[in-house]
Amino acid sequence: MAADLIPQLGTELVRATGVRAGVRVLDVGAGSGNAAIPAAALGADVTASDLTPELFTAGRRIAAERGAELTWAEADAEALVFPENSFDVVLSCVGAMFAPRHQAVADELVRVTRPGGTIGMINWTPQGLIGNLFKTMGPYAPPPPPGATPPPRWGDEEHVRALFGDRVVDLEMRRQHVRMAQDTDPIEFREYWKRNYGPTIAVYKFNADRPERVADLDRDFLDFLTTWHDGNGWEAEYLLVTARKR
What we know:
single chain, alpha/beta, Rossmann fold, globular
């Protein structure tokens, strides 16, 4: 999905964090390498980490096609397996935001970044397309794990500021937009999300044995996508976050 809909976001995050040849980079929640591969293509020493290593198969293929060399490592964003102060730049492009315990994630991002190093994230906002997708699916979703915070909160400036606290300096946050699926109609786009997006797949699986609930979800999902279609696809808002570890 990242490769289909938002490939430019990884490159945008790499640019914003000043990645260059020789720096040590960790991509947290890397998936198939949307940010990790562009960083590696610049000559950085990159580790792509994710809790779902099945995604690495596509990542390795994409990296090979682009001639990029990097390390792939299974790791939980809430409990990273890397020593403290290990990386010059720590990235997450709409990845770590989906771990349920936001404070644990923020603590880990700071821990593995060297003093003076850069932390950079791209996160969907609560008010944007993806934030409203989560609101649409909410009534049909399974109960969240104890202590979980909704993923789009990572796109709220005050929430991010509170998570990092005084452990970072030069914290900058900017809302930007990315356009998706310009040549797709709402029904086709709904079916794409059902096939390819993990949170959507999970919600439909949770309701699979209740056909009437699936029908209601299909209706609400289509209504949502139809409302947000602006005649030229869909525009999704995200928060670009950069900071330096104190």
